[in-house]
Amino acid sequence: MCIRDSLEAAQSLYEKKFTTYPRTDCNYISEDMRGKVIAVVSKMVDREEYSERSRRLLGQALNFDSRIINNKAMEGHDHHAIIPEENTDSLDRLTERERNVYHLVVNRLLCAVDKPYTYSETNYEFWCNDVTYKLKTIKPLEMGWKAFDTETDEANTTELSYTEGSTFIPEDIHIKVCETQPLKHFTDASLLSVMNNIDNRIEDEDLKTAVKGKGIGTEATRADVIEQLIEVGYAERSGKNIVSTPLGRDFISSLPESLKSLERTAEWEQTFNNIKEKDFDPDKFIDEIKAFVTSVVNYEKSPSRHREPLKYENPKAKQREVLGTCPRCGKNIFEGEKNYYCESGKDGCGFTVWKNDKFIEDSVTAEHIKNLLAGKTVKLRAKAKDGKIFTAEYNLEDTGKYVNLKRVKAEKVSLGKCPKCGGDVYEGEKNFYCSAGRDKCDFSIWKEDRFNSITITAANVKDVLDGKPFYKVKKQVGGNPLKIKYVMSINGKYVNFREASE
């Protein structure tokens, strides 16, 4: 699962009210959230997979140290760390991806409020032929939260033990010849880490301070930046690695160094801080930006700027399929990641149809859009107020500002004439009724006939309104089917059905 998938699952969990706001890089909560955390852990007792662990934690009292509650560390963050909400209903309806991310959030919270992990550390020094060798061993004393840590690294844990001043002869010692290894390719996680900590790649201490904790992009945008580089063909995935493509290498080498400098980014961040804290003149900074942009453009246009042309077209670029003609401006409609849009763009006609609508269960596909743009209706599933799923016909409705999917009301079909007043009889959700309404005509046939233990269908109603009987098959005690004839009987305000002899 790539970073974007994880972010989408986290966003979905937030929208479904299972976790708090996900687009944050804060690792702490504030003092006023202590009660909320206690309530969340208490609620986890109701979930079988967390019940025993949550009971134990509540029994030993939750650990709220500065690793968890830290108001000062939250300064500069818009949102606290991600934690579960008290809502645990319908967890079983989550997708596998959502369940995995939810489990990570719950596990991290339960680890955070568990007992500390304690261990003893011993450092040894050995002398052999005037050479000092060092060894560090770790022995766990109480596992605490680390017993549930999915990222536990026990590489340095050992049972070796030596006493001071002892002498021994090492065995099985051999010399291993190694070669230096090139830097490893980036993975999603390592590239995100670099983007988040670009100060580690800057040598100037003042500039490092200016960008420390800021990085390239934000928690909400970094994963999308990586995916966009892959989508346009500048990078690609090779297993878990993210590697540059020939197109990406050609493109980056074609840019002037001034546009690729991390130091320049840090200098600008430093200036932002000076504007905020030292009353630096913002107009002067804007003038400097304008001068920089002008110099870059002039350099790119100058005869001395020799640049190798890109050697090929991007093989990864998606070939966009034209889905239809824009009803607003007549240009082409294409498919985007989350919508269908007019090629004229936001500054053009602005025609947009979103793939997902909160009132509709089904996602709108490219095939749906083709039919809608052709003036046809499409069938989509929607959810009624009572939670029931139904299928309806939809077409496009352009309000001038927004383009919506509008439900097409199904045309009512008369099943026959009302025997009381002559009005039309229509089918409702639970009954068949007269168009005159209850105030003028009380004719009604309920679909579930509890007296006869039968279900009345539209075909049955049509028959009786035409003066015909209808038939139902019932099983007898012995299991043999029995065909029964029914006719309509109107007794005052009530409409009943009775068995009739052949």
Describe this structure in words.
This protein is an alpha+beta fold. The protein has 5 domains: 3-112, Topoisomerase I, domain 4; 119-169, no CATH class; 186-301, Topoisomerase I, domain 2; 324-408, no CATH class; 416-500, no CATH class. Helices cover 28% and strands 22% of the residues. It contains 12 helices and 21 strands. β14 and β15 (431-434) form a beta hairpin. α2 crosses α3 and α6 (205-211) packs across α9 (262-277).
- Widest sheet: strand order? 6-7-8-9
Radius of gyration: 35 Å
Overall pLDDT? 85
Shape: extended
The chain-level structural class is alpha+beta
Estimate what percentage of residues fall within beta strands: 15-25%
> CATH homologous superfamily of the largest domain?
Topoisomerase I, domain 2
> How is the CATH topology of the largest domain named?
Topoisomerase I, domain 2
Largest sheet: 4 strands, antiparallel
Count of beta strands: 21
For the record, give the distance between the C-alpha atoms at the N and C termini, rounded to a whole number: 68 Å
Tally of helical segments: 12
Question: Which regions contain 5 or more consecutive residues with pLDDT less than 50?
Answer: none
Helix content: 25-40%
In CATH's first tier, which class of the largest domain applies? Mainly Alpha
CATH architecture group name of the largest domain: Orthogonal Bundle
Q: What kind of oligomer do you see?
A: single chain
The domain tally reads 5
Keywords:
502 residues; alpha+beta; Topoisomerase I, domain 4; Topoisomerase I, domain 2; 5 domains; four-stranded antiparallel sheet; 12 helices
